[in-house]
């Protein structure tokens, strides 16, 4: 654990020396990060195949492609993001200039999960670099091949006094959380997020928590059912459902429930074959513990489709279940796997009570052709972000902040929002010395009259 302390001290020394402050330095490091990914593309594909059996399609779409786009977007706009921002000054500040400066926090800790082990480690790092911080990354021990590759790539690309990786299990995370970091960025479960926030609070370290929750997909009776089924199947069963914003459960209008289920079956087989367990490109469940957890969910309710699984390969077929309620095991926690419970509703207003059962989900998806109903859902339901007539795609827009609310997270990132997450917006008034407004001082005879004019317009 001494190496953790010494590394953090080295990073603090580097940061205090001001090396990370210039646009030239930050842009160069982002370019090196991009070159690192390009240089190791083959290794990345292989590591993710070993850890999660990810297909090349999913690696490119959800890991590498996303990172390339994020780096390019950041490089294109970084100079303007870094520039001090001039804002208006009130009449009481006559002669002054009011500015917002973007100040890096310092030494940041990034704790990343196993489900997108490359993307969710490096996407926050892009923001940390752009913001002028140094970084320590703690990747998941559950995806050991990708974590080892991540450490090797970072070691050969960056000095450890700037960016470094610490691998290990729970004890390493606990040791890191005892250190005097200037910022902590955590992606993972709500349960662990609470621990991270508690540890950070003892040192008053600011945090971003990217958590999860039970994200609903709502299908109304006027939805285009076949299209809805295609987009739901894609969003739900990508990465075998091990996605924090995957549709967790479906609320479906009773009039179209049977139609949607039949359409989902068709779309699943089109995407993954009639038996995905035999599909070499179908993602596996990460480990035995998660496989058993998912298996246990199928002891209740009625399986409408799927349910087949293979312990040896950790493959778990896309599964649709019915006859469940909020007391069922599958509805107690975020599923994080290829199981889709379906619940019927008769009136749109009913969905409020369902969503409130697991309030503030990270994402919400609504399928309907009625714009008034779409607006009603957006205004009346609390969620981190989402889509109308689609799933997942809000993540792919670098101009939209991604994050949760309440139990699904604190803070946001992606694009400029990553830069803003890793910078403090420092407010400065540059006051003139050419004159001095006497009414601001207590001995002024006209002060009260002037203030009344200023404040009682």
Write a concise synopsis of the structure shown:
The protein is 42% helix and 18% strand.
What does this 3D model show about the protein?
The model has no long low-confidence stretch (mean pLDDT 95). Helix 13 (371-380) links the parallel strand 15 (363-367) and strand 16. It is globular and about 80 Å long. The protein is of the alpha/beta class and 457 residues long. The strands form four sheets. It has a seven-stranded mixed beta sheet, sandwiched between helices. Strands 5-4-3-6-7-17 form a six-stranded mixed beta sheet, sandwiched between helices. Helix content is 42%, strand content 18%. The protein has 15 helices and 18 strands.
Number of strands: 18
Rg over CA atoms: 25 Å
Strand order of the main beta sheet, please? 10-13-14-9-8-15-16
Low-confidence stretches: none
Question: How would you classify the helix and strand content by structural class?
Answer: alpha/beta
What share of residues are in beta strands? 15-25%
The number of helical runs is: 15
Largest sheet: 7 strands, mixed
Oligomeric description of these chains: single chain
> Helix share of residues?
40-55%
Mean pLDDT: 95
